[in-house]
Design goal:
The protein is an alpha/beta fold and about 450 residues long. It is built from 14 helices and 15 strands. Strands 1, 2, 4, 5, 6, 7, 8, 9 and 10 form a nine-stranded mixed sheet that branches. A four-stranded antiparallel sheet has the order 11-13-14-15, covered by helices on one side. Strands 3-12 form a two-stranded parallel sheet. The longest helix has 27 residues, at about 1-30. The chain is globular, with a radius of gyration of 23 Å.
Length: about 450
């Protein structure tokens, strides 16, 4: 009796000790990371940012639960260089990917045809190889035991090339590999590859990093009929209705991911990050076409995006409508969350550090041609450098590529759609911002 009593007591104590040890190990483990990337969406095309028609209830909820920067910016208003910045933490002029494709003369078939793709791959592969040698986020997380998954848009070869553990994009130009190939079905068809990956990583006790970069709301704008019909009743044109419907469709997929975390008791252990790669303003009467001053442009419609960080119990919820954030800050913030050493070579800051946020007064961006004209000197395709120091924003054209274009200064607090160029009437503000932009970076071809 005595033996059985004490054996039972010992087992209870042992179980309690093991459970406590498991909980301690769980608490000390770095967070899972879910990185959600919208593709071609204007900064204010969300309900929580005031759009009167587009409904984004799940992203509204995420924003309300996150440290949300409504004055967020990307480093470049074009998807390939923008995504390269998000995974590397470097500006395009630092990581060397300044456009979507190399520029070359071609007369043997249509652009994006098989022969064009073959030539593109041969020219661009050295740049891809060089990029994948950088300390990408996947490499930084691997020593901590992370399992990483690539889905959706990806320009830098295959998922293996960029050091993911699993992925969807093969990158083989003979099979259509350019910007995502097989990965582009994620969200549009299913989220099962992500669900299966997370379940496996969680069952094996490994933290996970998921790159969710769906082809949404990116063209082709082919929303579910129910959503399209909903917005046809609200929108001024069918083209706009389809784009609005795509925004809500994307929102629904985000909700499905967040519900999955909740239903599997993973929400408190997961750092969810949200950013858009670049903006989009829909042309009213031309389906799948973007308007000027949006994608590829240095205006707010091209480079501004909300940026969110949700980690329950670790990051305090706040809707920050004052301070500036940038896509270059995502990697440093993740490094801090994972207790990894900061890296002085990264230009961004840790957005969990309130003092660093307040101390930084200006942020910067760069806009290039769609095609890289010189792979040996990729910044030769530069069109604009941008400096933002609220309320002022200065757009500086490249004097080599755009010699006839003048600088533009906007008070984006009073003039968020950038209609009134104040450069001539506010020369002192122009001078100050030019100095800041030049201190940040001057391309070599402008130094000669």
């Amino acid at each position: 009796m005595f033996y059985r009593y004490h054996s039972k007591t010992f087992l209870i104590l042992l179980m309690g000790f093991l459970l406590a040890s498991c909980e301690t190990e769980k608490e000390n483990r770095p967070p899972n990371i879910l990185l959600i990337l919208s593709d071609d969406q204007a900064w204010n095309d969300y309900s929580f940012l005031g759009h009167p028609q587009i409904e984004t209830p799940r992203l509204d909820q995420l924003a309300s639960e996150s440290l949300t920067f409504t004055r967020g910016y990307v480093a470049a208003p074009l998807c390939c260089p923008s995504l390269a910045t998000i995974i590397s933490g470097l500006y395009p002029h630092q990581h060397g990917i300044t456009g979507n494709d190399p520029l070359f003369e071609f007369d043997r078939g249509p652009r994006y045809g098989s022969e064009w793709m073959e030539k593109r791959a041969a020219l661009f592969q050295p740049a891809i190889n060089q990029f994948n040698e950088l300390p990408l986020l996947t490499k930084r997380l691997a020593p901590l035991g992370y399992r990483s998954l690539q889905t959706g848009k990806w320009w830098m070869g295959s998922w293996q090339d960029s050091h993911f553990d699993e992925g969807m994009t093969h990158g083989d130009h003979t099979k259509g590999g350019r910007h995502g190939d097989n990965g582009l079905v994620i969200g549009r068809e299913s989220l099962d590859p992500i669900f299966d990956f997370i379940k496996k990583a969680n069952d094996e006790g490994q933290p996970f990093f998921v790159w969710y970069a769906p082809f949404l709301p990116h063209s082709p704008h082919t929303p579910p009929k129910k959503l399209e019909d909903k917005y046809l009743a609200k929108a001024p044109t069918p083209a706009i209705a389809k784009y609005w419907a795509m925004c809500e469709w994307f929102d629904q997929t985000c909700g499905d991911l967040l519900d999955f975390l909740d239903n599997n008791d993973l929400a408190r252990e997961t750092l969810v990050i949200y950013v858009c790669d670049n903006g989009w303003i829909q042309e009213p009467d031309q389906p799948n076409k973007f308007a000027p001053r949006s994608k590829q442009s240095p205006y707010e419609g091209g480079i501004r995006t909300p940026i969110m960080f949700r980690w329950p119990g670790q990051i305090i919820q706040k809707m920050d409508n004052t301070n500036l954030a940038s896509s270059i800050d995502i990697v440093p913030t993740i490094l801090h969350a994972c207790n990894l050493p900061s890296d002085a070579t990264l230009p961004g800051i840790n957005l969990m550090d309130g003092n660093a946020i307040v101390d930084r007064k200006a942020i910067f961006a760069e806009a290039y041609e769609h095609d890289i004209k010189d792979l040996e000197e990729p910044t030769r395709s530069l069109k604009y450098r941008v400096g933002v120091e609220y309320p002022w924003k200065l757009i500086v054209p490249d004097t080599t590529n755009l010699p006839e274009e003048a600088m533009s200064l906007f008070n984006i607090l009073e003039d968020p759609t950038e209609q009134q160029n104040l450069a001539n009437s506010k020369p002192e503000e122009v001078t100050k911002l030019v100095q800041k932009i030049d201190s940040w970076w001057i391309p070599d071809h402008l130094k000669r």
